[in-house]
Amino acid sequence: MLKSLCLAALMLISVLVGMQLANDGIHKMKGYDDPNFQNAVSLNETDSNLSATFLGNDISSHDLEAKKKKLEEINAYNFFSSMGKKMSEGISAASQKIVDSIAD
């Protein structure tokens, strides 16, 4: 599983690097700087704020915090999550009873 996660992370990084190289190649091929072309990924760091631009969309830590608060406010009920919790509690209780009965 660790190998799969590392491979997926490597592929993601490779795609981002490839997009940046393609963008640089377009700039070189055109011969002049066109303001319509943007970098695939750029990071901007100020004194207390870190912001990123991914494919022309601005992403900041404030956006992520707002989305997190919105998700917490929604407090959506997930049927599969609750069923999984109930199943795990039931299996744990059953296995505990089996272990107790064997130990006695």
Which characteristics define this entry?
single chain, 104 residues, alpha+beta, three-stranded antiparallel sheet
Task: Describe what this molecule looks like in 3D.
The protein has 104 residues and is of the alpha+beta class. 65% of the residues lie in helices and 13% in strands. The chain has helices spanning 2-30, 61-74, 79-103, and strands at residues 41-45, 50-54, 57-60. The chain has a 3-stranded antiparallel sheet with strand order 1-2-3. The model has no long low-confidence stretch (mean pLDDT 79).
Specify the overall morphology.
Answer: elongated
Secondary structure: helix percent:
55-70%
| N-to-C order of helices and strands | HEEEHH
The DSSP helix count reads 3
Distance linking N and C termini: 38 Å
Mean pLDDT, all residues: 79
What is the structural class?
alpha+beta
- Trace the largest sheet across and list its strands: 1-2-3
Proportion of β residues? 5-15%
Tell me the Rg in angstroms. Answer: 24 Å
Low-confidence regions: none
Give a count of the beta strands, DSSP E runs of length 2 or more.
3
Major beta sheet summary: 3 strands, antiparallel
